[in-house]
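Key idea: predict the complex, not the pieces.
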Amino acid sequence: MIRVLKVSLMLSLVLLTVQAQAQQKMLSGTVVDEKGEPLAGVNIVIEGTHRGTATDFDGKYTIEASPGQKLTFSYLGYQSVSRSVGESNILNIRLYPVSRELAEVVAVAYGTRKKGELIGSVVSIDAETLQKQQTTDITTAIQGNVPGVTVIQSGGQPGSNPIIRIRGIASINASASPLVIVNGVPYNGNLNNISDNEVESMNILKDAAATAPYGSRGANGVILITTKRGRLNSPPQVSVRVSQGLSDPAVSFHKVLGAGQYMEYFWEAMRNEELYIGDSKLKPGTATKAQKAKAAQTATDGLISTLGYNPYGTLEKPVGTDGKTVSGAALLWDTDWKKAVLSDQAFRKDYQLNISGGGQQTTYALSGSYLKQDGSVISSNFERFTTRLDLTSQVKDWLQIGLNTNLTNSYQNNPTQGGGANRNPMLWIYNMPSVYPVYKRNPSGQLIYDDKGNKIFDYGDGKEGELNARRETFTMYNPLGNLYDDDIKYSRSNTDINGFAAIDLLKELQFKTQLSYAQYLFDVKQYYNSEHGDAAKVHGRVTKRRDIYKTLDFTNSINYKKQFGNHNLEGQALMEVYDLYYDRLTAAGEGFLPGVKALSSSTKPTQASGSPVEDRLVSYMVRALYNYNSKYVVEASFRRDGSTRFAPDTRWGNFYAVGVSYLLSQEPFIQRIDWIDVLKLKTSYGELGNNTTLLSNGSKWYFPYLAAYSTGFSQLDHPGVIQSGAVDPNLKWEKTASFNAGVEFGLWKDRLSGSFEYYNKKSIDLIYEKPLPLSGGITSLTTNVGALRNYGYEVSLHSVNLRNPNLEWRTGINFSIDRNEIVELTQKEFISGSKKWKVGRSLYDFFIREYAGVDPDDGYAMWYKDVLDQEGKPTGKREKTKQYDEATRYYQNKRSIPDIQGGFNTEFKYKNFDLYALFNFSWGGYVYDDSYAGLMSSLKSAAQGSPDLARRWQKKGDVTDVPLLLDSENQFTSTSTRFLFKNNYIRLKAINLAYNLPEDFVRDMGLSTLRFYLQGDNLWTYQSHKGIDPEQGNKYANPEQNLNGMTNHQSYPLRTISVGLNIEF
Amino acid sequence: MKKLFYTSILLLSIACSKDYLNEPKPTAQISGELVYGSRSGVEAYISGILRMVRTLDGNFNTGGMDAMYTARSVKGKDIIALGPFMWWIDDYKYEDRAATHARPIFSWKYPYEIIRHVNFLLEGIENSDNLSESDKKELAAQGYALRGFYYFQLAQEFQLTYTHNPNAPAPPIVTKPNQEDQPMSALKDMYTLIVSDLEKAVADASTTRLGKSYIDKNVAAGILARVYQVMAGSDPSSEYWHKAEKMAHLAYGGSVAAALDPESYGDGFNDIQNKEWIWGMPQRSDQTLYFATAPSTSSDPKSPGTSLYIDKDFVDTFSDTDVRNLFTENKKAKIKAKTFTNAKFTFSFDADMVLMRTAEMILIEAEAKYWQGEEVGAHDLLYALQQNRDPQAVKSSNAGDALLDEILLERRKELYLEIGTEWYDARRLQRGITRSAYHPSDIDLTANDKRFYLKVPQAEIDANDQIDESVNAGR
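Result:
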């Protein structure tokens, strides 16, 4: 801290000596842009001299000059203006842009930059683009708009956060998620608590030059969210948006068998079991007629008792010994589980209000919104109320203060929609045969009603031996019962206060202090009802969890800005103190009266736990930017961070970045080329860190270096502790060295503009759970292991294809080719689930067994295995085996991440109509479809099947890739290439068609804008593998598993179509 | 200049203290010094380890010692696993034994987790300056007993019995915290460690304890009795029979009448306070394994998870007046093999789970006498138990092999669904398992069938530099 003070004092002393001498006459004025906004940092030079000055933060300048001298006003991206000094002592100037691109001011780390001076790789998503989509989490809007960023929607629960990876995966086991900064402060709430309505811009910082000011937290990239502000001297402006729509799953599901077909197939599976596994143990395909007849009889006789249910009512043997449904059999029910648990009419309502304006000194912006979005899984929903107020005031000519406050509440009914839990309704769609009813039936198949005449959910836990009473699987569960009678409710509340004061110490020197306090409350209430299901035994269970996050961030900086002729210098010295206090409290109880859900009504408290933790970071940062004549820009930054995540010895880390850019289009020889407006080269290099250590369940790990004894392992009344696991006391920062080079261009008056960038990131000292032999008693050790490289190319192009008063047509395309490579490991290789990690390979290369089809002789599945020599070494030859465990795992040269991904958009404006469409695509990745594997499981243990089972092996000589049906334990569907599919897709992510009412008409109504629109999200998807959604982000898993291409029975993202109205006055 | 001055004051006032980054500390953890600084600290670690002994690991059939026992129970011929819950079916069919399967992973990982903690405990006790020598001995004894017990489980699960081939490869031996990768050991070396650990435990263990889940002299002796019983095999001349007899006698106290309580046999096997229980795992509604409360979850016909049934031939061996005859016949059962259920165990989330009972020790003593040629003493002891269980029991006239078979049958009748008696006895006596025609699965095992043990988990092979794929050749 003291160091910062010294630096600032010295800086100010230096500056004081640079004060100019008084002579001639004092000329002053204000420089504004074409909109009348003050321009800071405009160069003013007296022609023929080396004397000059620049405008201050408010666009004001003073200079001594004598009449007749000529002043040149120049500003990057604007046409320079020359004026002679006349009689007046005031000279106000208005500048007009050459290229909007270069002059645009974008938010960067701890400040703003003109795009022309930007060295880092920063992509900005403005409010307009955001509002062309219907987001519950605004970061989903990054998808398809920003090259080099992978965004994957995780399921269909409204309000669920997408998985975001900027330029690959810089970390395996620490968090690989980007840092999120809202109005200059790290955000610890849930991103779904920010409404698109209140956001002015969302900037994605990708390379070291852009993120280095965040030092230890910059390695994964940064998302900067800036909320709306009012403008000085503008009348109040009110904007209202209202939209309503309907949603359903974005893609179609795998087809499943109906009850009739299912029973015939299951009959066959039973017969085969009887022939090949049961008593006779024949080799498939060798059974005699008599043996077959006997087995057929057994299957016919036992079908109903094995299933336990009979959708054919009292017909005792609905499937004959020929395997066909007997004539006259009529189904009493044929359950479509998908229809039962999903709604194809989920509602969406979105209301937004914005009021903003400003006087001479003060600006204000007030936003409010209400959103209600139902999910496709029945009872799932998300509801959110937001308000935000921004006030900024120029209190004195040297003092500016501002306050930004936010209050958000959201509620989410979040039934389980992923994973292997019996409660997951998605699992029912793909596992539960249609022969099982939703509602309780009596032994003869008739519906049973309760006292009030209502149907009763069938939990399949009725009397053993009774017909239509007891299911073999999912006993005690009914998806609708679980959805309606149980709750998994989340509620979230954000209260954020963020204030700043900026003091102009000198003309060139500003001190800024920003203090922010954010409180985020996350409340989970889980209720499992007392009458049915898995908690009925204990008369219901309530679990309540309350997490409180308190974030305090205090940033002080000294900002310096000075011009010497064509030399421009900016500097910043900053200190930041960050403190997160996180407290979780969990309590649970059992024993509730029906319908009572309050924890205090419990007869038996079963859990009370929780302990607070604190996470702190102290940082010092300095950076400097030098700009010569808007042509050459050099920037360097250095940051030193100390984090409580590491032991005192390894706590401090140094991070830096340097970058240069060269605006070629400022050179006369380029300026002579008519059609080039902008041409810029840039490159940067930096080293960044990552300290977000995670536990294996994905939650944050605050003290990964401490080996201690955890409390809470009591044995009845005796307090118990347990050694908390293996730790590496020397655990240190993950570091990422990041190189970036790019070219930006604008041609033909910006009719065509774009950029091309190459990046190369090497992450070393990765924090990873290194697998240990189980015989050591612990599965892994969290330590710094190995290195990863991410590299790739990013292309972004925008074109204005047509532009005339009536018609405008723009298109944009962006894509990236991202590669991931393991550079160093301490062990020769790791097996990580379906992948093997080895130097030179990607984290995402599938390493699984290879399916070798079905043996035509007996219908059994086969896989390849290596032929071994005498010493047990592979000979290079392969053979087929029917023993899955014997089969060899191979690299398949297939990755779960795509070869290329990106998006394209197009925008038409014709008279009062406008149309916007955004597509995103991903090409070359693979997905392992476990849902489909389940459906192809040969019906073992009476699981649901796919109509594709029609291709099954049935008799000796059948050539097919689908094994025989077999109601017996088998490994036909164990992980192999059989279910590994190419996962190319293109999605129409957003489409927006609007009609703006004619201006005259609108003005008569006292409005400035009246706009009707039709908005559609995810309306159309092309996919190379159908049946599941191509986006399979697994948010419950470790970071590296998020993109591992393994499905998890997740609900599908929503497709939404809405109509809306936008009024402004 | 004034502004600069005020700003400097402001900056100085916010300069934070040096300790700012040292202040945050874990609030739910304590240090090793505190643990090994006092007897109650070490006892807290022992309590923690015993709590871990009943930790849920993934599935309801892989959580706690009860899961390991129950998996063994269904591998015999008295129990039928038929669902609806699939928990034990793969064990029942001997199919859950491949390197990537849940059972081998659990049966390997779980004992090693406990052993790792015991290794920490033993090292911590040894290095502690604050514990008295007598406290050190007594506390370490509990650790040695646990380590011996869990290595004994590893030896049982991952190799054929000791007497079959003492040189056969057995799981790695790890006796220190954070030891480097260890290769497969030899079975005899593993037994040397087991015996040495348990002998130390029996010598030093206290006769009092914090609760019946903790280890005292009786528990240590009981474990050692089992170990000697296995090491003796079916060799009448083995020195271990004498040792087994002594240890079993010590474990139950020596008085059959005092050690047994026939009235409580039908009480549901859910109360650790039962005087027949030597050792168990307690539960409470806030400290429960939920549905992993094996075997009661799976065998109690009133439990929502019923999926274990009883072989009719086995039911027929019980007289009507036997207190252990707790079977119910469901004549309406659609599937024949689901006809007989048993009410020995009453399921609830707070049911305690049994690990060792006096009756087993009495029968070990009887068997040891038999092998040593004391048939009369053996028969008397057997009859004392039989009479206790069934007032109308008649003493048989069996002798020789028939008497041994009667003792073995009595073990099954007494201990069904407890410790996997059938599987355990078939292994140690190198016999097969022949299931009756009543079983839906008619898989039979011959003596020393490889399905009597499991493959080494792939995760161990992948991570251990000292073990490669060849370890599973022939398994």
